[in-house]
């Protein structure tokens, strides 16, 4: 029993759940004064520099070859340029809480995609776990679901829809190619660097004359936080987790992200935690348990 307990995996999953729960708030603060593509370019550029520093220190910085570069370009575009970039754009138009509830649809997409690509078998229990977990997320926001139909939110909702589709596709791709190269830090260095260059080009197209003087210290600090915690730490942990558990199990953490996003709203914006929130939390934890229980049962066979 003790042998099966992977403390590194537990830490990695905890980091993903907690850190990415705070990034919705971080993005909201960053885009208050910094154009979204600049936020993402700064975020990934600094993350790439951190990864490069680690690799230089460990003497592991090297050319990975064209074949591996192509493998890193796909998740870089899907998960960092599109998913991360579009989420950042979306939060200019919708609240961070609403962004997190739309993001909570990701496990359903990954579950269906994993079945399509043969990463796991169709399971009623797994599907029920995902649905129960998502119902908990909906329960949190049931009084504000009318926002989806509000004209002011449509652009943001559209960008979030594209973001979660790209994230699901990138996660499934990463899972299918995860064992083809072992150095996660080296892979992420290339992913962040390529994404930052693409996003810098997009920033120069969509915000050609940025007013750097209008960038508040609060927004700059938020961008730095997103870089170190949201990119370096969380992406490393996410990729590590994908090596050890199913894509659906890792993606189910988006429910935890939503709880944390709501908690931060209560902590920093004086939002009230109601009985609804307690019920929703119970539903989310139940959904996580059901999906994970299915995995344990498979291992025992």
Strand content: under 5%
Q: Tell me about the largest β-sheet.
A: none
* Radius of gyration, CA atoms, in whole angstroms: 19 Å
**Number of helix segments?**
12
What brief labels describe this structure?
single chain, 301 residues, mainly alpha, globular
Layout of helices and strands:
Elements: H1 7-30, H2 36-57, H3 65-90, H4 96-103, H5 106-116, H6 124-140, H7 151-177, H8 184-206, H9 217-244, H10 247-251, H11 253-269, H12 275-300
Helix pairs in contact: 1-4, 1-9, 1-11, 2-3, 2-8, 2-9, 3-7, 3-8, 4-11, 5-7, 6-11, 6-12, 8-9, 11-12
Provide a descriptive summary of the structure in words:
With 301 residues, this protein is mainly α. It is 78% helix and 0% strand. The chain has twelve helices and no strands. The protein has helices at residues 7-30, 36-57, 65-90, 96-103, 106-116, 124-140, 151-177, 184-206, 217-244, 247-251, 253-269, 275-300. Helix 2 (36-57) packs antiparallel against helix 8 (184-206). The longest helix is centred in the C-terminal third of the chain and has 28 residues, at 217-244. The model is unreliable at 294-301 (pLDDT under 50).
């Amino acid at each position: 029993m003790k042998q099966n307990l992977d403390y590194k995996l537990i830490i990695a999953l905890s980091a993903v759940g907690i850190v990415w729960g705070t990034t919705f708030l971080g993005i909201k603060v960053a885009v208050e004064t910094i154009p979204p593509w600049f936020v993402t370019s700064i975020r990934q550029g600094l993350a790439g520099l951190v990864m490069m520093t680690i690799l230089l220190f460990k003497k592991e910085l090297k050319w990975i070859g064209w074949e591996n570069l192509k493998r890193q370009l796909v998740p870089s575009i899907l998960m960092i340029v599109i998913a991360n970039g579009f989420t950042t754009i979306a939060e200019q138009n919708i609240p961070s809480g609403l962004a997190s509830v739309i993001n909570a649809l990701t496990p359903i997409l990954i579950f269906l995609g994993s079945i399509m690509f043969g990463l796991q078998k169709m399971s009623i229990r797994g599907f029920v776990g995902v649905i129960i977990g998502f119902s908990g997320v909906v329960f949190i926001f049931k009084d504000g679901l009318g926002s989806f139909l509000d004209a002011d939110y449509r652009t943001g909702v559209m960008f979030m829809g594209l973001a979660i589709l790209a994230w699901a596709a990138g996660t499934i791709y990463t899972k299918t190619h995860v064992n083809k190269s072992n150095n996660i830090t080296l892979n992420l260095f290339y992913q962040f660097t390529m994404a930052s260059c693409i996003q810098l080009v997009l920033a120069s197209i969509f915000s050609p004359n940025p007013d750097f003087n209008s960038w508040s210290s609060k927004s700059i600090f938020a961008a730095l936080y997103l870089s170190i915690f949201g990119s370096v730490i969380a992406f490393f942990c996410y990729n590590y987790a994908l090596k050890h558990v199913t894509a659906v199990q890792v993606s189910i953490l988006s429910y935890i992200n939503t709880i944390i996003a709501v908690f931060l709203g209560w902590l920093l914006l004086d939002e009230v935690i109601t009985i609804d929130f307690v019920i929703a939390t119970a539903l989310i934890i139940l959904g996580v348990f059901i999906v994970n229980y299915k995995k344990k049962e498979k291992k025992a066979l």
